[in-house]
Write a sequence for this structure.
């Protein structure tokens, strides 16, 4: 503690003195009134000690008298620290600036996080929070936590609780989602269950009502599957709200035909122009068509007009487009694949979601005239029962 | 000797601390590693193994290991280190 006080109050030097008769030297120094401490004998001719900077002049005088060599090992203490920092002003300014910048930056919110959400997407909550004023880059003091919390609760009905917590430069929105109550089946009206699609019944679980079809039976759209009208002997007729799970195999079909492309266009073509006067054709430029296989496309470019009358003069452009023959089998394969992809997408658009596709059948026919016909049948297992109110 | 006896007499009459009247060194030893001598008359020898201090009643010889002077002022001197022997040499 005393050392600390020394250190900060005045500053001191650690000196090393080399000479003979060092004991006498120390006595003289002591008698001259200077305070020395931590005196260590380094070797026979050297002693090292600490001395306050106020007493340094006395030390110098004494060492001169004793013709000792004086060497300052280190300068310690607050005055030296100050003089050292005075020489490096920019360092101090930089340090202060750094602290100020750090402090300002840390008083902003730089990141927003959402925790605890299960069904609601984090992005949706974040965009809502941004609207309510919680977004990266706002000062912490601007943040109205109650407003954000209440706003989120109002916006999302499924949230039971929302809390905003600021941790450093990060704001954490913690939400708790409530469990949605199960749907209550309205049993107040009597109903039947009918088929919404054609199919073969795979499984039928009747909860209420009377099953009219058996497993393995083929049903048509609109056919009555489970009746809500119960007829019992002695009890008379009773109307109930039929409930059943009717799982059936349903087929979806799609068909497409297209030409097999036996050629591929290479992108090279030659254009030729012709004049046509009446029925006479006058070629302007005649080019050599050097392609082995090509398509010829004729295009009428212009009919010359004169007043209202139409002159029988035309300019015709002829394009010769090069094509490269493709292997027939591979052409068939690629055409087939393309068609199947298209058909599958077409069918999948019709199938309700979350339905499992059980089977896939593909029938392909290839005609002699290079036509391909594809039938695609997808088989699914799905619940085809729908409620139908019993009138009267 | 006469003088000292005289001092003892005075001391009996006036209740002063003995060391001030009789000009005696006051030596305090704390354990075996710290020794404070008040009313000394300077250092005679100073090595890590042996420190000899002049006092009004003779030379105080302190032997030990790794000894150094903690501080030194005209009235007081403090030694630190492994002190083994403290003796007076007349």
């Amino acid at each position: 503690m005393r050392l600390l006080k020394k250190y900060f109050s005045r500053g001191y030097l650690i000196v090393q003195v080399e000479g003979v008769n060092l004991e006498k030297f120390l006595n003289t120094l002591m008698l001259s009134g200077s305070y020395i401490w931590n005196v260590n004998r380094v070797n026979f001719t050297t002693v090292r000690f600490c001395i306050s900077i106020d007493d340094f002049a006395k030390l110098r005088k004494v060492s001169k008298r004793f013709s000792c060599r004086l060497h300052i090992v280190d300068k310690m203490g607050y005055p030296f620290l100050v003089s050292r920092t005075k020489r490096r002003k920019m360092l101090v300014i930089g340090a202060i600036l750094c602290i100020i910048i750090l402090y300002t930056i840390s008083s902003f919110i730089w990141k927003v996080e959402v925790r605890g959400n299960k069904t609601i997407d984090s992005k949706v909550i974040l965009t809502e929070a941004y609207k309510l004023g919680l977004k990266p880059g706002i000062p912490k003091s601007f943040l109205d936590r109650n407003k954000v919390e209440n706003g989120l609760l109002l916006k999302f009905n499924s949230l039971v609780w929302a809390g905003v917590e600021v941790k450093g430069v990060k704001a954490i929105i913690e939400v708790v989602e409530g469990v949605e109550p199960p749907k209550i089946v309205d049993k107040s009206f009597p109903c039947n269950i009918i088929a919404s699609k054609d199919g073969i019944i795979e499984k039928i679980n009747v909860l209420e009502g009377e099953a009219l079809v058996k497993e393995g039976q083929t049903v048509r759209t609109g056919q009555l599957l489970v009746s809500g009208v119960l007829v019992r002997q002695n009890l008379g007729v009773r109307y109930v709200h039929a409930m059943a799970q009717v799982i059936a195999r349903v087929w979806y079909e799609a068909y497409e035909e297209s030409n097999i492309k036996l050629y591929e266009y290479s992108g090279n073509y030659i254009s030729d122009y012709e004049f046509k006067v009446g029925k006479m054709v006058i070629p302007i430029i005649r080019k050599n068509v050097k392609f082995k296989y090509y398509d010829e496309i004729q295009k009428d470019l212009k009919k010359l007009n004169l007043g209202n009358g139409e002159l029988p003069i035309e300019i015709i452009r002829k394009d010769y487009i090069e094509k490269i023959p493709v292997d027939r089998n591979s052409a068939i394969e690629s055409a087939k694949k393309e068609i199947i992809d298209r058909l599958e997408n077409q069918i999948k658009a019709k199938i309700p979601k979350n339905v499992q596709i059980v089977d896939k059948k593909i029938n392909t026919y290839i005609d002699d005239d290079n036509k391909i016909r594809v039938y695609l049948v997808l088989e699914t297992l799905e619940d085809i029962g729908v409620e139908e109110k019993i009138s009267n | 000797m006469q003088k000292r006896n005289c001092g003892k007499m005075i001391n009996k009459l006036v209740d002063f601390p003995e060391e001030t009247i009789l000009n005696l060194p006051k030596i305090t030893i704390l354990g075996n590693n710290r020794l404070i001598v008040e009313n000394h008359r300077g250092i005679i020898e100073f090595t890590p193994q042996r420190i000899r201090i002049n006092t009004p009643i003779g030379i105080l010889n302190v032997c030990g290991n790794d000894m150094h002077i903690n501080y030194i002022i005209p009235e007081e001197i403090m030694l630190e280190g492994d002190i083994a022997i403290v003796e007076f040499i007349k």
